[in-house]
Specification:
Chain B: One of its GO terms (cellular component) is membrane. Chain B: Keywords: Membrane, Transmembrane, Transmembrane helix. The complex is a heterodimer of chains A (162) and B (166). Chain A has a domain of 93 residues. In chain A, helix 1 packs across helix 2 and helix 6 runs parallel beside helix 8. Chain A contains eight helices and no strands. Chain A starts with a helix and ends with a helix. Helix content of chain A is 78%, strand content 0%. By secondary structure, chain B is mostly helical. Chain B is built from seven helices and no strands. In chain B, helix 1 crosses helix 2, helix 5 runs antiparallel to helix 6 and helix 5 runs parallel beside helix 7. Chain B is globular. The termini of chain B are far apart. Classes of the chains: A mainly alpha (162), B mainly alpha (166). Chains A and B meet through helix 1, helix 2, helix 3, helix 4 and helix 5 of A and helix 1, helix 2, helix 3, helix 4 and helix 5 of B.
Chain lengths: 162, 166
């Protein structure tokens, strides 16, 4: 519990991407890897409770405004979702071929879903949570380093032209 | 006198009922999926509850991170070396795919280029929303695109995995 709180505070203060999740993940993980912490699992009720809260957190982001979008626009948004699912399977299969990971781990690791959602899925199907965390973090960190620079660069060029 | 907000009670009831149903019917990640689907549907029908505050979100993320941390072992460094290049390759593939999808959204749906790009790039939802604001993109549409992507993956991927691989 203390490790979770300290890790969450550190991750947030150091402004690490998804710091509240990554901080406890690595602090608890470091203590576990160093054999200082001898806890292998939490009570089932805690696991279920945190999963139910995660579902609530995501569900609350929906609102009635979504219905106001045109069918064409919603179709486009759905298309992005479908492409994500299909690309996840394809990229996951390629990663499976390139590494020693199981196919399930490779797919969950490369899926562009949220980090907490994919970690929860990984642990529920007994995939390699460690590898999933590493892959997901790498994607988030690399994209968060590259995307702002890339977008602001083309935005500047776009504004100077227009 | 402060009036009690019954929406909070409703949200907790829906969360508990949805997750219990999800677990009872043995849905993949049943507790997540049950509470997510119940609350998302209630919100679209008109529940009107506000999203969680940052502090609550952090508490949930910290708990999930702590639980996931229990699965880390001393093989971490070796594993990191082995997955570094495939990880970069996967990220690059996602980025290229996002550019293609954004191009399609711009051409076919006439969504402006920056909104399409911000909505298609699979990085963190909240971080991308901040960048979207900086480049004058439609932040609501960007958030919605990310929300649908994550929601579809949370809903369908567990089923695909359980049908095909378990």
């Amino acid at each position: 519990m203390i490790l979770v709180i300290v890790g969450g505070m550190l991750g947030t203060l150091l402004k690490i991407p998804a710091g509240a999740l990554v901080g406890p993940l690595f602090l608890v993980g470091s203590f576990k890897a160093a054999n200082i912490l001898n806890l292998n699992d939490v009570p089932q009720i805690v696991r279920w409770g945190s999963q139910a809260c995660l579902g609530m957190m995501l569900g609350l982001l929906f609102s009635r405004d979504i219905i106001a979008y045109s069918k064409k626009m919603l179709g486009g948004i759905l298309f992005v979702g479908v492409v994500s699912v299909l690309s996840a399977l394809l990229i996951g299969f390629v990663v499976y071929q390139l590494t020693d990971l199981s196919l399930i781990t490779a797919i969950i690791a490369t899926v562009p879903g949220g980090l907490p959602e994919m970690l929860t899925l990984a642990s529920s199907v007994e995939a390699n949570t460690q590898a999933v965390a590493m892959f997901q973090l790498m994607r988030i960190i690399v994209l968060m380093l590259v995307v702002p620079v890339f977008l602001r660069m083309i935005y500047k060029r776009f504004r100077s032209e227009g | 006198m402060i009036k009690p907000d019954f929406r909070v009670v409703k949200v907790f009831f829906l969360m508990a009922a949805g997750s219990a149903l999800g677990v009872y019917f043995q849905l993949p990640i049943g507790a997540v999926m049950g509470s997510f689907l119940t609350i998302a549907i209630a919100q679209m029908v008109g529940l009107g509850a506000k999203p969680l505050q940052v502090r609550s979100k952090r508490a949930i993320q910290m708990t999930i991170g702590g639980i996931a941390g229990l699965n880390i072992n001393s093989e971490l460094l070796n594993e990191l070396k082995a997955i570094f290049l495939p990880g970069l390759l996967a990220t690059l593939s996602h980025f290229i795919l996002a550019l293609i999808v954004a191009y399609w959204l711009q051409k076919v749906l006439k969504i402006d280029w920056f909104t399409a790009l911000c909505g298609s790039i699979p990085a963190g939802m909240s971080e991308i929303s901040i960048i979207a604001e900086d480049v004058d993109a439609d932040v609501q549409l960007v958030t919605l695109m990310h929300l649908f992507r994550v929601s579809m993956l949370v809903t369908f991927l567990p089923f695909i995995i359980s049908v095909l691989f378990l």
